[in-house]
Amino acid sequence: MFGQKSRSTQVAVTYPERVVIDRSTRDPAGVLIGALSEPGPGPRTVELCNVDINLTGRSEIQIGSNRSLIAAAGCERGPRSLGPRIFVTDTRGSKALFDIRGDNVLIAGFRLQGPTDGIAQGDTKETGLRVDPGDDMPPIGNIEISNMEI
């Protein structure tokens, strides 16, 4: 197999401070999860523009300290624009789609949808965002969630 790479070879990815996910992004779900979850003390902003990201089958995506998940300037939801969308079509039981585990987190300007279009009824309850620092973490003091359709 000279000159060929093994299919099991994984490449480590390091994300910059600003990650833009748009229609040209290959594997937008993978980039979103990787950029939000990659450890590191520095701030990181993930900007969404004109995308629909399907996170069906995913849950408990951790958002640590100093992370922003926002619509890019000019792409945010507003009177003339629905804005970017993150959606699921499956249920997760008691698991949230996103777990905010850190401080200094900003989530703004996009739609978070699914698996149903209505308000929870009876035993069917879904959690899109959960704020939970965990038992071994310091208290969370600075989280902003704004201009969202959830």
Within the largest sheet, what's the order of strands?
1-2-5-8-11
Distance between the termini: 50 Å
Uncertain spans: 1-6
Order of helices and strands: EHEEEEEEEEEE
Radius of gyration: 17 Å
**What profile does the largest beta sheet have?**
5 strands, parallel
Portion of residues within helices:
under 10%
Average residue pLDDT: 85
Number of strands: 11
| Number of alpha- plus pi-helical segments | 1
> Which descriptor suits the 3D outline?
globular
Beta-strand residue fraction: 25-35%
Structural class: mainly beta
Summarize the structure.
The chain is mostly beta strands and 150 residues long. The chain is 7% helix and 29% strand. It is built from one helix and eleven strands; from the N terminus they run βαββββββββββ.
Give an account of the 3D structure.
This protein has 150 residues and is mainly beta. It is 7% helix and 29% strand. It is built from one helix and eleven strands, in the order βαββββββββββ. It has a five-stranded parallel sheet, with helices on one face. β1, α1 and β2 (44-48) form a beta-alpha-beta unit. It is globular and about 40 Å long. Mean pLDDT is 85; it is low at 1-6.
